[in-house]
Write a structure and sequence with these properties.
The chain is of the alpha+beta class. The protein is built from eight helices and 18 strands. β7 and β8 form a beta hairpin. α5 packs antiparallel against α7. The longest helix has 17 residues. It is rod-shaped, with a radius of gyration of 37 Å. The N and C termini lie far apart (134 Å). The model has no long low-confidence stretch (mean pLDDT 89).
Length: 307
Amino acid sequence: MIRRVPVGDNERVLLIRKKRFIDVLPPGEYWILTLGRHVELERHNIKSLVFTSEWADYLVKERLELVSRYFTVVETPDSQVAVVYLDGKLARVIAPGNRVLYWRGAVSVTFDLIDVRQEPAVPERLLPALARLGRESGVTFAAVDEGKRGLVFIDGRFDCELGAGTYGFWTVIATPRIEVLEMRRQTVEVSGQEILTKDKVTVRANISAVYEIVDAVRARSGVKDVNDHLYRALQIAVRQTLGKRTLEEVLAEKADIDATVSAEVRREMETYGVRMGAIALKDIILPGDIRDSLNQVVTAESRRKPT
C-alpha cells in the first residue's frame, strides 16, 4: 500500500520504519510504501522552533549530517549558560547541562556561551533584555544608589564591591547575595541611658554620634550591623565614664566626659572601617528628687544675691 504524505512549508516529518529512524522529510509531496513495513510519521511544525522528540539524542549522536542541515544545536556544559537570540533579539537563557535543538527556517537562531563560574557577573549589555525575561533569566538583579556600596557574596564568600549602578549575577550554579551599605554620614541616638554614678545616683544620659563607613568590606566583615555595634559601643563607653565619677563630678566635668567617650568609641569603630564625626553627651537627666533639691538651692542663692 502506498501512502501520500504532503509536507507543508512550515513542516518537517520524521520517517521511521520498524522503529528505526530513516530520514527527515522537507517540504514537498511524498509517496511512502507502507504495506507491512510498520511506517511511522512524526510531524513537526517548525514555527515552534524547539525540536521535541525522543529521537533528538539519537540524531545528535548518529546523524550529524542531518542535524547540521535541519537544526541549530545549543549545548551547555556544566559551568556554562547559553544566551539565545532569535533574529538578533535575546529570547532565552539555557541553563548548564542542557541540549536544545532549534529548527532551521525563517527565524535566525544564534547564541553565546558564557562560563558563569568564571564570570558570575552578567555583562552590562545584556541586563535590559534579561530583566524582561524575569525569573526565566536565571539572574539576580541589584541596584546600588549613589552614596552606597554593594558587597557581593557568592555561595557565602565575598566576591567583589560595587559602586553606584545596576548589576546582575547568574544564579544557575551558585547563590549570589548582594548587601547594600550606606556610605553617607549617619546619626546614632542613644536616648535615656540609665547609669549609676560612683556615689550611687542613677542618672539618665542622651548621647548622639555622627559616623560614616569608609571601608565597606571591613565594616561588613568585622561586625554584623555597624549601627547596632556603634549603639552598644556608645552605651558601654558612657556607662564606664560616668560610673567612675560622682554626681558632682559628672555635673562639673561634662566637657571632659564628652572627650573621654569620643576617644574610646573612635578607637573601637576605626578598626571596622568607620570614621566617627561629632560625639556629644547631649543631656544628663537627674532623678526628680535631686533635680527639685538643686532647683531649691539655685532659687535660694538667687534670693540671697543683692538686688
